[in-house]
């Protein structure tokens, strides 16, 4: 009976419908551990992943997030080669060895060596003959003679005994070798041929990020999005070194998508994160396909109109908890994607079973997000738009229309698309690490209240109280005009 559909409909809840109940706790927020599993084979050090959106994640965001212990998913609204390039930029940024090493020939003049060092902004050059390292020359060698009109050649003053290292040398080993031998740079060689160079500065720089998310080779971790049927893109991203490939689609329980997962999975080495879904049944279907991670959220996002345009969705806490109940049986991590506005929402998402959260609007507007700062009425903003918005579906490489199972052929593109997202601006927020500091600080505080020493304890121990709309009104600051905005409680509205 039709009436049964309504009578038997379950309740759906989201962030503002519950609060976490404080628990007896001997856990201090500063001692809390927030590292977490985000896919079958990968852990990261803070449970934060940036959305695969063209106003949120390109290499700049992914690099900073990896440095801070999180993960960026490079969006796919660009050509395959552009996206591959973005993945490589993240990997190379953490590469200890500079691959495109600048070298000089032994017969070059000192003046040439000096000029190359100036142009390339390096302080030393390996001297190479037929790719074989035959010496090394530094600014220090050149300085005493360069202004005296010396006619000497590189080979006359270079250091001939060059200490080199093989590619397998670890950063710590390289540092030890450099310190012991009092050298600043070490050419990396294979069979005597130059492959790159390592400098002490690079190694020390790297030590600045002890919490960084790194792959087995010590490079920054990065994920990248692909379409549900875009095998070519998935394989190219895999070849480029993406650790996780995310199938990015608005309805991953579409049975054609489910069927195609095996084809993608069989052709890549990376872990496969699949979403979005919002039900236990969808989780069962995807886990049966041996996906490595699940992403949950149909319509909770700040720029989403799916729930309004299609009338479809499940409030986010209910969706995450329903999926997490299934996922815990097989140990597949769950990512809560969309709708998070405050650090408390991250805590609530984890408390209902998420292993990590995916953030769009909270990270949009930061310095590292793609796009320029615009000034309106004397205040700074950056663009933020849904990947199902008209702008995103028709702009860039237009690689996102299949996210919403839409295909456009010929002219009049706009008129033939049914958007499920909007375009707008969010306040400029400055560097993303300041935003992350507040978000993680809030999460740790929550875990202290709940007596949870780590993410899995938070998932198991935290308990909720269901609240009313007046409970939520009481929860926000009230009966005051805020004069000094807190960094973790923005009140800026347009
Ligand atoms: P927040 O709330 O963090 O949400 O801004 C970001 C998430 O929203 C999803 N997304 C969309 N959903 N229409 C939608 O229905 C869209 O145009 C759209 N664009 C992004 C996506 O899961 C993202 O991580």
TrEMBL record:
NAD(+) binds at residues 248-250, 297-299. InterPro entries: Aldolase_TIM, CBS_dom, CBS_dom_sf, IMP_DH, IMP_DH/GMP_Rdtase_CS, IMP_DH_GMPRt. Its cofactor is K(+). Its EC number is 1.1.1.205. One of its GO terms (biological process) is GMP biosynthetic process. Gene3D superfamilies: Aldolase class I. Residues 476-494 are annotated as: Disordered. K(+) binds at residues 299, 301, 304, 474-476. IMP binds at residues 302, 337-339, 360-361, 384-388, 420. Belongs to the IMPDH/GMPR family. This is Inosine-5'-monophosphate dehydrogenase. The gene is guaB.
């Amino acid at each position: 009976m039709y009436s049964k559909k309504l009578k038997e409909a379950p309740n759906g809840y989201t962030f503002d419908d519950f609060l976490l109940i404080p628990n007896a706790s001997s856990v201090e927020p500063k001692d809390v551990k927030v590292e977490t599993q985000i896919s079958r084979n990968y852990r990261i050090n803070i449970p934060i992943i940036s959305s695969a959106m063209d106003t949120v994640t390109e290499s700049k965001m992914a690099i900073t997030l990896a440095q801070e212990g999180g993960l960026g998913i490079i969006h796919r609204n660009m050509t395959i080669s552009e996206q591959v390039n973005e993945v490589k930029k993240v990997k190379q940024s953490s590469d200890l060895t500079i691959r495109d090493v600048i070298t000089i020939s032994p017969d070059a003049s000192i003046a040439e060596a000096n000029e190359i060092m100036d142009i390339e902004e390096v302080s030393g050059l390996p001297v190479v003959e037929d790719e074989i390292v035959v010496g090394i020359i530094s600014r220090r060698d050149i300085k005493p003679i360069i202004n005296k009109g010396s006619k000497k050649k590189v080979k006359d003053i270079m250091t001939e005994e060059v200490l080199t290292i093989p590619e397998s040398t670890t950063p710590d080993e390289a540092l030890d070798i450099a310190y012991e031998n009092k050298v600043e740079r070490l050419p990396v060689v294979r069979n005597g041929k130059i492959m790159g160079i390592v400098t002490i500065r690079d190694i020390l720089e790297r030590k600045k990020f002890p919490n960084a998310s790194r792959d087995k080779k010590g490079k920054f971790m990065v994920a990248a999005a692909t379409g549900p049927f875009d095998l070519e893109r998935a394989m190219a991203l895999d070849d480029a070194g993406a650790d996780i490939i995310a199938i990015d689609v608005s309805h991953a329980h579409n049975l054609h998508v489910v069927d195609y997962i095996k084809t993608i999975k069989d052709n890549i080495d990376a872990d496969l994160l699949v979403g979005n879904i919002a039900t236990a049944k969808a989780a069962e279907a995807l886990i049966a396909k041996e996906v490595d991670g699940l992403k949950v959220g149909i319509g909770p996002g700040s720029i989403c109109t799916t729930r309004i345009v299609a009338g479809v969705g499940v409030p986010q806490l209910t969706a995450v908890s329903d999926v997490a109940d299934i996922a815990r049986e097989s140990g597949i991590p769950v990512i809560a994607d969309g709708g998070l506005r405050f650090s408390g929402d991250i805590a609530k998402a984890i408390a209902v079973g998420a292993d990590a959260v995916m953030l769009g609007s909270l990270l949009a507007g930061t310095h590292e997000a793609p796009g320029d700062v615009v000034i309106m009425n004397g205040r700074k903003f950056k663009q933020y738009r849904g990947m199902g918005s008209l702008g995103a579906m028709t702009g860039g490489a237009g690689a996102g229309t299949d996210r919403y199972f839409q295909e456009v052929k010929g002219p009049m593109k706009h008129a033939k698309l049914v958007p499920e997202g909007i375009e707008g601006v969010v306040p400029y927020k400055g560097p993303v690490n300041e935003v992350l500091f507040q978000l993680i600080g809030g999460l740790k505080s929550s875990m202290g209240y709940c007596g949870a020493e780590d993410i899995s304890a938070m998932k198991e121990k935290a308990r909720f109280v269901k609240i009313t709309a007046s409970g939520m009104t009481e929860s926000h600051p009230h009966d005051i005009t805020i004069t000094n905005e807190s960094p973790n409680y923005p009140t800026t509205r347009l």
